[in-house]
Amino acid sequence: TCVNTMSLLCLILAGGKSIRMGQDKALLYDSTNILSKKLEALGCRVLIACGSRERAHHFDSNCWFDPPYSNSLGEVIYAFVAEHDEEVQLFPCDMYRLDDAALATILAQSPGVPLDSESNEQFTLTRIPAQSNLPEAMSLSKLFSGLGRNNLNSLGNRLENFNHPDQIGDLSKSDQ
To answer: Is the N end or the C end of the chain the one with fewer CB atoms within 10 Å?
Structure first.
């Protein structure tokens, strides 16, 4: 079950176009809807940060729309946290290797920014404490500068973000 189901709100980040990928990563493999269904089945509350109202029809879960003044993901997350007092677990729409064991590990983490197997900060998997007063920032590193770091290196490549079409080809080959 979802850790702290009564207070944990999962926000799936699925609002942007990917120039580098050349297609909408939130719609690839129907990953956003699959992830939201898995999280809901675990008892989590789920919202999808889908960008604009015009994108909402792509998603099965409730959507949250970017404020009109936001120009960066940092500003979007800041606005979301300012509107929601509960603990928030972020999920990106483009971690196509997240499996059930990885989800359980992510949901069990304490508030903070996960570190992957290469010690990279995975800001889009951050757990934000309830009633957080994050600093206003355009960059995620500044937005989450006051949070601790969580070592999730045991998850290996399951925390990989997909940003280029050749990664999709590599993913397809590894699934064969």
So the answer is: C
